Each structure stands twice: as structure tokens, then as C-alpha cells.
Amino acid sequence: MADNTIDKARDLLAAPVRRPNPWGALAAAGLAAMAAVLMAGVMVLGPGVRFEEPPLVQPAFPNG
Q1: Which member of 14, 29, 43, 57 has the lowest number of beta carbons within 10 Å of its beta carbon?
Q2: pLDDT tens figures, 23-62
Q3: 3-state secondary structure the chain
């Protein structure tokens, strides 16, 4: 009877077996890819880049 109790206690104290989750790895890879694209955009454009807006209405004749 003591052996059966010890075996039950060992089963309860054993660490649960975890299976790796592929979704966590996929989410981490997606986050890293998004961060890389954003950092590349900042490096290419830089902090001083300005886009000039074209005039909305251009005159039909340049002089009048």
C-alpha cells in the first residue's frame, strides 16, 4: 500500500509536459519582421525628409 501512495505522490509532483506552441514562434517572427521594416523605413527616409504637396489647382494659362 505504501508503494502505491508513493507512486501517486510522484505523479502529482512531476512537472507537466509542455508541447511547444508554433503560434508563439510565428507571432514573434511577425513582430520582428514588422520592426525591421519600420526601422528600414526610418533609415531610408530619415528624420528630415519632407514631401512637398503639389498645388491643387493649376491655372489654365500661365500668364493669366
Answers
A1: 57
A2: 999 999 999 999 999 888 877 777 777 778 877 776 666 6
A3: CHHHHHHHHHHHHCCCCCCCCHHHHHHHHHHHHHHHHHHHHHHHHCCCCCCCCCCCCCCCCCCC
